[in-house]
Amino acid sequence: MELLLPTSTAGSLPKPSWLAEPEKIWSPWALEGEQLSEAKQDALRLTLQEQRHAGIDIVSDGEQTRQHFVTTFIEHLDGVDFENRKTVKIRDRYEASVPSVVGAVSRQRPVFVDDAKFLRQQTDQPIKWALPGPMTMIDTLYDGHYKSREKLAWEFAKILNQEAKELEAAGVDIIQFDEPAFNVFFDDVNDWGIATLERAIEGLKCETAVHICYGYGIKANNDWKKTLGSEWRQYEQAFPKLQQSNIDIVSLECQNSHVPMDLIELIRGKKVMVGAIDVATNTIETPEEVADTLRKVLQFVDADKLYPSTNCGMAPLPREVARGKLKALSEGAAIIRKELSV
């Protein structure tokens, strides 16, 4: 992309109150049927307008048409039973009621392609679309059929590749795979996690990204972060192999985290989507605070490979806070562009 330091978001943006309960992740829809379909399209238009107004360069759907970044994709697949739910420990830190794999998984029809086509019709700006990664998908399920995390991950990788190719054809410029599980299951990541991710991007001509985060700003995640000590070095486990992979962009957390900045050296040569906005607080960063984070990152990333972004999803934030944070991100990036042009 020609613009230096193009800004983007990592994941979800707040939904309007007429679509779902505000300031809550995974909130049920407030409407149903045709009204819900129309409301989702209205929300897509609105979130696009808010990103444009804030000055965001690479826009997204803000996950307006999905309740959950993983299960909304899974619920469209065959072989998964949402009635027969089980309680499992996900991300190795909190329990959740999840659907069960009861047979061979397959995708009979596109999941997000119509939404992507609709968003493409609304804008000429580059579009980034997020899909769940294979490892995070298997960690958000109870597998009563394959009884093998690796086997199920390979099946999901094939399905994700089908969806990704159709999203690319619909005009999506960057396809991002969300893999928070990469920060937890280190042996699996290196044994087969990155390999299944590469299967998911096989044959794509658009840019691809992997987003590895420390989770929403919810209590279970915040409590976990308190156990990680003064330095969060989880990225050290996956970055070396990701650096050798075919993934174009690595999206990581930075603002208000304890991730040592020099770990970015491990993905030297990759484009880096750096989270310069903290989603675990309602405090809106100043543009100068964003700029200061970007200055530090630029010690380890070439300017033409840096994509300023947010941390994890902003769905639980008040909408006015999210707007303020997006504007701060855009204005902070503008400060650095000006400095680099002098």
Question: What descriptors fit this protein?
Answer:
single chain, 342 residues, alpha/beta, TIM Barrel, seven-stranded parallel beta sheet, three-stranded mixed beta sheet, 10 helices, 10 strands
* CATH fold-type name: TIM Barrel
- Tell me about the biggest sheet? 7 strands, parallel
The fraction of residues assigned to DSSP E strands is 15-25%
The structure class reads alpha/beta
Please give the radius of gyration in angstroms. Answer: 19 Å
Regions with pLDDT < 50 over 5+ consecutive residues? none
- Please write the CATH class name: Alpha Beta
Q: How many alpha or pi helices? A: 10
Any idea what the CATH architecture is? Alpha-Beta Barrel
Quote the distance from N terminus to C terminus. Answer: 21 Å
The chain-level mean pLDDT equals 95
Report the strand count: 10
What portion of residues is helical? 25-40%
Shape: globular
- Listing every helix as H and every strand as E from the N terminus to the C terminus, the arrangement reads HEHEEHEHEHEHEHHEEHEH
How are the strands ordered across the major sheet?
Answer: 1-4-6-7-8-9-10
Number of domains: 1
